[in-house]
Target: CMP-N-acetylneuraminate-beta-1,4-galactoside alpha-2,3-sialyltransferase
Amino acid sequence: MKMGLLVFMRNVLLALCLFLVLGFLYYSAWKLHLLRWEDSKYDKLGFLLKLDSKLPPELVSKYSNMSEGVCKPGYASALMTAIFPKFSKPAPMFLDDSFRKWAKIRDFLPPFGIKGQDNLIKAILSVTKNYHLTPTLDSLSCKRCIIVGNGGILANKSLGLKIDDYDIVIRLNSAPVKGFEKDVGGKTTMRITYPEGAIQKPEQYEKDSLFVLAGFKWQDFKWLKYIVYKEKVSASDGFWKSVATHVPREPHEIRILNPYFIQEAAFSFIGLPFNNGLMGRGNIPTLGSVAITMVLHNCDEVAVAGFGYDMNSPNAPLHYYENIRMSAIKESWTHNIQREKEFLRKLVKARVITDLTSGI
Model:
């Protein structure tokens, strides 16, 4: 009798174990299928594959009823997170005196970090002593920002007043303002550049704007130290073309762009070759994409104007301020224009950014 009971109990336990194993295998297969289905919603970089101009359901109640023209708090970062869940907003625009503590840039050489530049950066920041926007702009609860590119598509669009209506107007390199105000506006909050791209004639600088260095190589930080300390710039410091020898700005009007934006634009957003974290062929984002990355972290609404090269129109003007044609553009050693276009089109399609000139 006892023997029969033991056999019965053994069979029950075996059946129960088999049931549990089969249940676990079924659950694991279902979970794996679910994960694969989730993964299939995103491209290899992590962007949502199916993009459209409709607000995600979770954001409709927050933004759909806001009046036209009213700044929408957190709008750009919310949409960016919706299409790229890995996006993390906190990232300061400029380096401050705690720059050594930021692990994301500490271990990378320029342009993707600050490794080896500690002493130069410390010397610069000890004189500039300002690491933010102006107090007035910092006090805004909602910031509308626009990056004005240099593209010929800006010509004859009469967007000047619309551009000047933004809280923060960002210009790049040496693109002029004077004489082109009707199309590009007259307001400049900051000008982001590097030694070879900076305006070389002091009289061409606009008043009351911040001068922001994007450091792509160690010589750039050395150059900025010369500028800040009003020392003589050495032309033999490894620059690939002539550089500005004087910038008509006081130290408190000078900033250093956080190199994390170069790193994030290159590797996370555009998907350029990592190359062990070193500068190499085709892995440097353009200044325009870097600036967009910066404002996604620091502005509530983001727009661009003057972006995009139409290679199908060889006779179209390359820049709004000169007669060079699109056909003059050559394959770049440092940039991957096609990859950048793909990134920017994602942002425009999902309404993360607004393209005023429809060039992207």
Notes: Residues 57-355 form a domain with the sialyltransferase cstii, chain A fold (CATH 3.90.1480.20). Strands lie at 144-148, 168-172, 190-193, 210-213, 254-256, 301-305, 354-355.
